[in-house]
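Weekly modeling sync, notes
Attendees: AB, CL, MP (scribe)

Item 1: holo prediction request
CL wants a bound-state model with zinc ion before deciding which constructs to order. AB pointed out that an apo prediction alone won't tell us much about the pocket. Agreed to run with the ligand included and paste results into these notes for async review.

Input as submitted:
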Amino acid sequence: MNGYILVITGGMFSGKSEQLIDRCKKFEAYGKKKVKVYKPSGDKRFSEDEVVSRMGCHFPATNIPEKITDKVMNQILSETKDVDVVGFDESQFYSKNIMPLVSELAYNGKYVIVAGLNMDYRGKEFGYIGGILAMADKIIRLHSFCAICGSEKGTHTQRLVNGKPAKKGEPIVLIGDTESYEPRCRKCFVPPDRS
Ligand code: ZN
């Protein structure tokens, strides 16, 4: 196969994992391709050995450390030798080596699917997703519905502490506090460092 980099990005609740799983399933079932998906070992929200979407779709996944050392990189490059499609979920959490890794996999002829948040709760670039977006052959930019006005242009992820937009310098959640996130459009989003 010709190497290719597809990035699936957007805010929380926009269906990134859903898209990743759907594409991997189709590559396997209809494209007769060998598919391998990785996820950060810290992500145990739904399952240890699967990528699971909020809508309940799932696909087997291998846990790898968020810090991609040269050793981890070589391990992935060697175990994907006869794999056609390589997927990464929650890619915003990986260390800098995710960029050369994705690039190398694509040069090795892999179809690489990278799913991840583009912005954090401050509305700032998240991890190294920007560098991967720069290398992408195709970008799928997903939106959610804004939790405030209902517009379909939910681009941002609002962090709420006790139901109110988190302020700057309020990253720590104290005992008894509730922390949650919701999708918002740019108009309804309250940037922590501007509030
Ligand atoms: Zn809105």
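Recorded for review: The chain has a mean pLDDT of 92.
Action items: CL to compare against the apo run; MP to circulate these notes.
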